[in-house]
Automatic annotation (TrEMBL):
Lineage of the species this protein comes from: Bacteria, Bacillati, Actinomycetota, Actinomycetes, Kitasatosporales
Protein name per Swiss-Prot or TrEMBL: Glycosyl transferase family 1 domain-containing protein
Record organism: Streptomyces nanshensis
SUPFAM superfamilies: UDP-Glycosyltransferase/glycogen phosphorylase
């Protein structure tokens, strides 16, 4: 392990010496995807910041940990990650140049059993503020470039094209919604998936084949990633950020679908929160941490992944979108409750406090 770690230690040590950052953020580095790289960062940070020679350090920011990341190999059924770290796993330590934050109480509880003296702080995700108002030029141009016809609702699926994220479930849902919309005279929705087709090519082929077999390939767009801020490419093509995509969906009287294919991998699940911040209806499959995060009062259309449940969920969501388009007062009131729940569950104050502490440590 030392032999494998050394090149990474050297690289990070040289990078730290050249750039002199105050704080380095290591995202999801507690998971054992690249132990030599993580161990190399730990060693380089100790050398660079230890002994009070420099202020600052490293922030390990974990969205997933071992027990909660229950990804299984589709061929063998075996867990990709062990249920807990072992003796070779580099873990954050309680020292002057290390901060450890996680995004949920559940992850903090899990980390309490790890073999380290460090105790992570819970700093929940920040969700964006979504402006109201009519679409702007970039939204209209994006819709035209994507071939989105006016009058049809846009559904956002804010996930990667990765098996556990359940994009196949969202496609099955869209196909059932299409049938229900045609039967009832409602507009057929579009589905915009945030991820691209290159991350998991085998699964992506399954998803695109399902789109074709279900008759919805003309109704699905894969956005190939969503930028931190909207950008117009050199060829004039717009790539919209999360907020602008939510505004496109809102302008179309659309919604958000969040359909994990398994119940035990999500540690938060931000799809419902994004819907709430934009005042949009939401449909989800059942997953374990939904109620611990959002609570029982959060209004949503619920389904599981069985064909019967997907069909029923599709019919209910078509009715929900129709009520949303018509300005149904009861639905609007439920969506406002969703917004208040989400603002309470994802507060800004912990992040503001955390940034002040990082700044003060370097003063």
């Amino acid at each position: 392990m030392e032999t494998l770690t050394e090149p990474y230690r050297v690289y990070f040590a040289e990078w730290l010496a050249e750039h002199e950052p105050d704080w380095v953020f290591g995202l999801n580095m507690t998971l054992s995807d690249a132990v030599p790289a993580t161990a190399g960062l730990h060693a380089a940070v100790r050398e660079h910041f230890a002994g009070g020679r420099r202020r600052g350090g490293v922030v390990f920011w974990d969205h997933d940990l071992f027990g909660s990341c229950a990804i299984h190999d589709p061929q063998t059924g075996a867990r990709v990650y062990p249920e807990r770290p072992n003796a070779l796993t580099p873990l954050p330590r309680d020292d002057a140049h290390t901060r450890w934050i996680v995004i949920s109480d559940g992850l903090a509880d899990e980390a309490s059993s790890y073999p380290t003296d460090a105790v992570p702080e819970v700093v929940s995700n920040l969700l964006p503020t979504v402006p109201e108002g009519r679409p702007e030029a970039r939204h209209r141009e994006f819709a035209a470039q994507q071939g989105l016809q006016e009058g049809r609702p846009v559904l956002l699926d804010p996930v990667r094209v990765f098996r556990i994220k359940g994009v196949d479930v969202a496609v099955r849902l869209l196909a059932e919604m299409r049938e229900e919309a045609l039967r009832t005279g409602e507009p057929v929705p579009y589905l915009l998936v945030f991820g691209g087709l290159d991350e998991d090519p085998e699964y992506a082929r399954e998803v695109t084949a399902l789109c074709a077999a279900s008759g919805v390939e003309d109704d699905v767009r894969f956005l190939d990633g969503v930028p931190l801020t909207s950008v117009r490419e050199d060829d004039g093509t717009w790539r919209l950020d999360e907020v602008d995509l939510l505004r496109v969906a809102a302008a179309s009287s659309g919604g958000v679908v969040f359909t994990p294919g398994v119940t035990d991998v999500e540690t938060v699940g931000l799809g419902p929160g994004l819907a709430a911040m934009a005042g949009l209806p939401c449909l989800t499959t059942e997953y374990d941490v939904f109620e611990p995060v959002y609570g029982p009062e959060f209004a949503r259309v619920r389904m599981d992944t069985s064909p019967e449940s997907v069909r029923a969920g599709a019919a209910e969501f078509v009715r929900t979108l129709a009520a949303f388009r018509e300005g149904d007062d009861a639905l609007r009131a439920r969506l406002e409750v969703n917004r208040k729940i989400t603002e309470d569950r994802f507060p800004r104050a912990p992040w503001e406090r955390f940034w002040r502490e990082l700044r003060a440590a370097c003063a």
